[in-house]
TrEMBL record:
Residues 78-105 form a coiled coil. Residues 10-75 form the J domain. CDD domains: DnaJ. It comes from Aromia moschata. Its main location: cytoplasm. This is J domain-containing protein. Keywords: Chaperone, Coiled coil, Cytoplasm, Nucleus.
Length: 173
């Protein structure tokens, strides 16, 4: 039997006995299971030999006091870890639910819960604001260009008027 396979098995469950069973109970359960999965009794089952060998290893460990004590300690640790993990999952779930409730309370409806109509209205309003900014910028640009052209036109007229008056003073027509 693989060492990794040993770690995955619950020996007591394999023999269908309680963890507090005596050596006599363990041997009795082993004989019962061994008869069921012995390769001679199950010639068509390719896994019968492996299963029988696993049962022999289980018997060897559970009938040795030191090995059984070590196995029981490991098994107890695994069961406690599984229980802690299960409880932790419950705690995490509760914490998550509490956090989401506080967020909903603080922010009202969450973004995910907004209706499609509400999202569309918000998008239209955003575009309208951006569009009006662009229109305002365009209007300012046109006004600036008009002022520049008017200023240029006034400057041109000033020079034309000055030139004409200077020519008149000099007697030129």
């Amino acid at each position: 039997m693989d060492d990794s396979k040993i770690e995955d098995l619950d020996f007591y469950e394999e023999l269908e006995i309680d963890i507090n069973s005596t050596i006599i109970d363990i041997k009795k359960a082993y004989r019962k299971k061994a008869l069921q999965c012995h390769p001679d009794k199950n010639p068509n089952d390719a896994n019968a030999g492996k299963k029988f060998h696993e049962l022999s290893k289980i018997l060897e460990i559970l009938t040795d006091e030191a090995a059984r004590a070590a196995y029981d300690k490991v098994l107890k640790g695994k069961k406690e870890a599984a229980l802690r993990h299960k409880e932790l999952d419950g705690k995490r779930r509760k914490l998550k639910e509490d956090l989401e409730a506080r967020e909903r309370q603080a922010f009202g409806k969450s973004f995910k819960q907004k209706s499609a109509d509400q999202l569309l209205k918000e998008e239209i309003e955003r575009l309208r604001k951006e569009g009006s900014k662009q229109v305002e910028e365009e209007v300012e640009y046109v006004k600036r260009k008009l002022r520049e052209e008017q200023q240029q036109h006034l400057n041109t007229e000033y020079w034309d008027v000055n030139e004409t008056s200077n020519k008149n003073k000099m007697g030129c027509k």
